[in-house]
């Protein structure tokens, strides 16, 4: 995750683009296919679409740089579980980072993790959801650019799970270096290569929320939308 000074710059950029204050990144998961060449398929790696993958959680900023990468969970793992067992969540719980992340409905609503409003019923909630979606498109775009640059992440890695995890992280690091060195604007993906999280979305009474998260999101909606 970015340092404190960078966090302020990122918050300012996200606010100017989407109008949600305090955003330091967008979070999501993407599935990277893995082919166990000459090895027996492990059932735990088979995702809901029936192929083996690694479920990778990543956070990006407004410039589609990856700020946090976790690439070691098997494809059958729900992304809420990936997050709940991550070092990132522990750091957020401990208050080590300022600001909030934006996630989809599959994530738990927290003071530091905001989701869209399910079934928005007021104009302000609709505006908030539109802004949330606008900000979250950065992570979808980041995944698309990453897989466009490194086609092996789209078509699959023919190696062990441990080595595949290292390759994914290395590709994310190289992606960031290209952004740092290239003065040209980051291009939009030519076509969608993002194989996102297609796990069952938890909404309504099943969705994990806490009171602090609900109150904080409501305050943002009331004061900014």
Automatic annotation (TrEMBL):
It is found in: Nucleus. Keywords: Hydrolase, Metal-binding, Nuclease, Nucleus. Its cofactor is a divalent metal cation. Pfam families: DDE_Tnp_4. Residues 27-176 form the DDE Tnp4 domain. Its main location: nucleus. One of its GO terms (molecular function) is hydrolase activity. GO terms for cellular component: nucleus. It comes from the Eukaryota. Coiled coil: none annotated. The keyword Nucleus applies. InterPro entries: HARBI1-like, HARBI1_dom. Belongs to the HARBI1 family. This is Putative nuclease HARBI1. It comes from Acipenser ruthenus (Sterlet sturgeon).
């Amino acid at each position: 995750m970015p340092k404190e000074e960078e966090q302020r710059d990122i918050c300012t950029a996200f606010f100017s683009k989407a109008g949600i204050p305090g955003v330091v990144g967008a979070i999501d998961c993407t599935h990277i296919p893995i082919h166990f060449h000459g090895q027996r398929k492990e059932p735990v790696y088979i995702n809901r679409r029936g192929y083996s993958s690694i479920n990778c959680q990543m956070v990006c900023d407004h410039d589609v740089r990856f700020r946090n990468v976790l690439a070691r969970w098997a494809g059958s793992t729900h992304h809420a579980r990936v997050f709940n067992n991550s070092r990132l969540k522990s750091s957020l719980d401990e208050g080590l980072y300022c600001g909030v992340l934006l996630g989809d409905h599959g994530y738990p609503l927290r003071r530091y993790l905001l989701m869209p409003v399910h079934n928005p019923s007021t104009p302000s909630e609709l505006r908030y959801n539109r802004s949330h979606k606008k900000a979250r498109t950065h992570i979808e775009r980041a995944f698309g650019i990453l897989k466009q640059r490194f086609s092996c992440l789209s078509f699959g890695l023919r190696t062990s799970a441990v080595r595949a995890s290292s390759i994914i992280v290395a590709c994310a690091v190289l992606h960031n270096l290209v952004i740092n060195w290239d003065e040209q604007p980051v291009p939009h993906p030519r076509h969608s290569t993002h194989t996102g999280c297609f796990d069952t979305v938890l909404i309504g009474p099943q969705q994990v929320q806490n009171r602090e998260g609900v109150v904080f999101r409501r305050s943002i909606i009331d004061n900014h939308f």
